[in-house]
Design brief:
This protein is α/β, with parallel strands linked by helices and about 270 residues long. Helix content is about 45%, strand content about 15%. The chain has 2 domains: about 150 residues, 3-Layer(aba) Sandwich (Rossmann fold), CATH 3.40.50; about 110 residues, Rossmann fold (3-Layer(aba) Sandwich). The longest helix is centred in the N-terminal third of the chain and has 17 residues.
């Protein structure tokens, strides 16, 4: 596989844009192809079989677009289907959970860590597993926050209703004396400022996107796949987005998150049978 091939990333919807943003900073020489499954979001309340089926379709689609490696920009897919994808597809694929757990284990001073994520991710127990493997003394206080994803998809980010819901979910785990809180769903960093305000400055918010992008860069290097745009003709590295519904809404949301307008031709519709 050529090192100037694009990289792939996907999520159930808009959440993975928090990973795209980080990738664009840490891997400025890579072209990103992103798939947001906006027609089938949320994944977080669905079964492992359903999520794995969707993830398989999207991975196959990204492979058909010629990507050289994939970052699963979704904790739910990373928790439920990463091993299946790795065994079924012959290219480097990483998830966001393991790097996120590593970042949290490094951030904590008191070994009391909160984890918030979708119902499926929390139910899988994967964050506890990775955290306990890193340090058996860590205590994990986990909470599913299923309403956060629709609030983000609706664009209700700076909203008093969102603040009430944040408190409703988080007050019980902040009362446990945690010093770090993992934002274990890629939609949640979009609520970061409001979450920080609700939990107070004494709690460090851990966004797995940073550590995951670092890990992804390392995987590309290790496989000789890191692109060096200084070699050869200057290609257009602007990201391409595919969504399964609402391309126009996605385009304006993505422009807000990424901080620059996206040309219409860079956001396309692609649906599965
Ligand atoms: N953003 C995804 C995650 O990281 C999925 C959210 C959802 O679709 O429920 O878990």
């Amino acid at each position: 596989m050529a090192s100037n091939a694009p990289i792939g990333a996907f999520d159930s919807g808009m959440g993975g844009l928090t990973v795209v943003k980080e990738l664009m900073q840490q891997l400025p020489g890579e072209q990103i192809i992103y798939y947001g499954d906006t027609a089938r979001v949320p994944y977080g309340d669905k079964s492992k079989e359903t999520v794995a089926g969707y993830a398989r379709q999207i991975t196959g689609f990204l492979v058909s677009k010629g990507v050289k490696a994939i970052i699963v920009a979704c904790n739910t897919v990373s928790a439920l289907a990463l091993d299946d994808l790795k065994s079924e597809f012959d290219l480097p694929i990483i998830g966001v959970v393991k790097p996120g757990a590593k970042a949290a284990a490094e951030a904590t001073r008191t070994n009391r860590i909160g984890v918030i994520a979708t119902r499926a991710t929390i139910g899988s127990g994967i964050y506890e597993d990775f955290l306990h493997r890193t340090n058996p003394r860590i205590r994990v206080f986990a909470k599913a926050c299923p309403l956060f994803v629709p609030l983000v998809e609706e664009g209700w980010i700076d909203d008093e209703i969102t603040d009430l819901i944040i408190h409703r979910y988080l007050d019980e785990i902040t009362a446990e004396g945690i010093d770090s809180l993992v934002l274990g769903c890629t939609h949640y960093p979009l609520l970061k400022a409001r979450i920080q305000q609700a939990v107070g400055d004494g709690i460090t918010l851990v966004n797995p996107a940073f550590e995951s992008s670092r890990e992804f860069k390392y995987v590309l290097e290790e496989n000789g796949l890191l692109n060096d745009p200084s070699q050869g003709a200057t290609a257009d590295l602007s990201p391409t987005f595919y969504v399964s519904d609402g391309a126009e809404r996605f385009r304006s949301f993505a422009a807000r998150i990424l901080g620059s307008p996206l040309p219409e031709e860079n956001v396309k519709l692609h649906t599965f049978e």
